[in-house]
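User: Predict the structure for this protein chain, please.
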Amino acid sequence: MGVDTAIQVAQNGLLTALLVSAPILGLVLFVGLLISLLQAVTGLQEQTLSFVPKILVVGGVLLLLGPWMLLQLVSFAAQLYSHMGVIVGQ
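Assistant: Here is the predicted structure, written as structure tokens:
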């Protein structure tokens, strides 16, 4: 496997990981920011107040976008397997 092939495989892997994780991370970040703002305004510092909504958001995003995420991961794996001869150098 050449350096160019290794870089391309690593780049595609990182891009796929970013693409799959971005919806969850973005929404959890937004909900965490809203909860933190609410806690700062009201003075409530209960830890479960920030934890439970984040878990619910993660569950909801996985229910809604789970099939799409799985399709992206399966597509990446199929692409790796189809180019396996080029990757290992045969």
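The two ends are 9 Å apart (CA to CA).
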